[in-house]
Write a structure and sequence with these properties.
Strand content: 35-45%
CATH superfamily: 2,3-Dihydroxybiphenyl 1,2-Dioxygenase, domain 1
Helix content: 10-25%
Mean pLDDT: 95
Low-confidence stretches: none
CATH architecture: Roll
Amino acid sequence: MKFEKLVPSLFYSNLKDSLTLFIDCLEFKITHAEFESTSPYYVAEKDGLGILVFQNQEYAEIHKPEYRIVTNNIEEVYTKVETTHPELLHPNLNKITLRPWGAKEFAILDGQAGIIFQQW
């Protein structure tokens, strides 16, 4: 059995809020979108990662996901976020920090989704 990719589903009250984080800041590319449908959503991808982002008020209120993205260039990622979108840096992990388990990490938060960037 072989898996190719895990594609999480995220829920936002308004898709425009997610575009700042995933498209503008993290530079994912939209590969499919249905913004005008009765259930708006888009698919975005970057470097083999994928996300499915839905506009759904009810689910957005219930689901507050946290994800980890492992990278081999955490300083570059941090510099990009800190330079272009410092308001997204998580107040509890807003600098690259060597964690007790040996990984360097920092985190971002947009009010809906939290993402921890990690480098071993």
